[in-house]
Write a structure and sequence with these properties.
By secondary structure, the protein is α/β, with parallel strands linked by helices. Helices cover 45% and strands 21% of the residues. The structure holds ligand DLZ. The site of ligand DLZ has 15 residues, from strand 3 and helix 3.
Length: 165
C-alpha cells in the first residue's frame, strides 16, 4: 500500500481514455485546505488534460472529510455526474479522533461506491503529519488528485464499455 515507491502522478498516458463529454463531480473538504486545494487542482488539471471540459466538472465544498459522505450522496441525487471524486485530508492528532474520522469516512464512501450506479473515487489522504500530506498533493510522491482523476475517467469508460458491448 505504500505510495513511498510509487509516484501518484505517474501513469501510462496511453491507458487513459478520452474524457470528452464525461461529467464529473468533485466534493472537497475545507479542512487542511492547503492540501485539499492542491489535490483539487491536480484532479481538475488531469481531467482537462484528458479532454474533459471545465463546465463539465462541478466542484462543491464541505466543511470536513466526515461530510464528504453526505456531500457525495447529495451530488448523486441532484447532479447528473458520470463519476464523483471525494477529496479530503485527515492528519493524525493526539487523540483517537483521527481513527474515527478516517474509518467513518472510508466506510461511508465505500458504501456509496458499492451501492450507487455512479463510481465514487476515494481521494482521502490520511497521514501522520502535514509533511506526509504535502508529499502527496504535488510533492515528492506526486499528487493523489491526478491519480483520482485518472481513476474516475477509467471507471466511466468501464461503465460505457459494459453497456455498449
Ligand atoms: C474535527 C476534525 C479534526 C480534528 N481533524 C480533521 C482533519 O484532519 N481533516 C478533516 O478533513 N476534518 C477534520 N475534522 C473535521 C471532521 O471531518 C468533521 O468536519 C467534524 O467532526 C464535524 O462533523
Amino acid at each position: 500500500m505504500a505510495t513511498k515507491n510509487q509516484n501518484l502522478s505517474a501513469y501510462d498516458i496511453n491507458s487513459v481514455p478520452n474524457a470528452g463529454g464525461m461529467k464529473f463531480g468533485i466534493v472537497v473538504s475545507e479542512w487542511n485546505e492547503n492540501v485539499t486545494g492542491a489535490l483539487l487542482a491536480g484532479a481538475k488539471n488531469t481531467l482537462m488534460k484528458h479532454g474533459a471540459c471545465e463546465k463539465d466538472i462541478h466542484v462543491m465544498t464541505v466543511p470536513g472529510s466526515f461530510e464528504l459522505i453526505h456531500g457525495v450522496q447529495e451530488m448523486l441525487c441532484y447532479d447528473a455526474c458520470d463519476a464523483i471524486i471525494a477529496i479530503g485530508c485527515v492528519i493524525r492528532g493526539d487523540t483517537p479522533h483521527f481513527d474515527y474520522i478516517c474509518q467513518g469516512t472510508t466506510y461511508g464512501l465505500a458504501h456509496l461506491n458499492a451501492t450507487q450506479k455512479v463510481p465514487v473515487i476515494y481521494g482521502l489522504i490520511t497521514t501522520n503529519d502535514m509533511q506526509q500530506a504535502l508529499d502527496r498533493c504535488g510533492g515528492k510522491h506526486g499528487n493523489k488528485g491526478d491519480e483520482c482523476a485518472v481513476t474516475a475517467i477509467k471507471m466511466v469508460d468501464f461503465h460505457r464499455k459494459l453497456i455498449h458491448n
